[in-house]
């Protein structure tokens, strides 16, 4: 099983790489930070994981094209998990998992533009699920609530934001990276072979939480 993970050197991406390797996958990761990339590759080498990687800014088309050429060569033109349709098609089966957000499912104050981008990913997963099913390729999106990562820490340090968000979250806490990674990897396994076109929220119940009234005693 071969996999490409973008942004794999930290946070949720890092946890996904670790989860995939625990299932025996050969992983190629890319990250915009050379420092974090080299640090993560060194850590995984010490653990005996089969992880390779390179620096890439996936917002740059030339860098994306170079990345796909590199990954194609690295995996002999066959990729089972993640993002490139031609490589997945060559494998005969594959799974794409888009990292979305609850902001693409429900309204988040001040997050209109961010929500639009994540909502687009959710719709893309639906379209690709239908268009590429004939090639044995599934596509799904995973939409987390706030997760304990370095990127999210400034928000968690903001007392009123944290209280407001977690007050609407039935489980009452932020998520852990491995709680997202375990779902992502499950969606890549044969056990999930009949799941496609879905947006699955990993959110502690926030997106299903309706109106709740607690009368004063």
UniProtKB/TrEMBL annotation:
GO terms for molecular function: oxidoreductase activity. Belongs to the short-chain dehydrogenases/reductases (SDR) family. SDR65C subfamily. PANTHER family: 3-OXOACYL-[ACYL-CARRIER-PROTEIN] REDUCTASE, TROPINONE REDUCTASE. Keywords: Chloroplast, NADP, Oxidoreductase, Plastid. This is Uncharacterized protein. Pfam families: adh_short, adh_short_C2. It is found in: Plastid, Chloroplast. It comes from the Eukaryota. Transmembrane segments: none annotated. One of its GO terms (cellular component) is chloroplast. The keyword Oxidoreductase applies. It comes from Brassica oleracea var. oleracea.
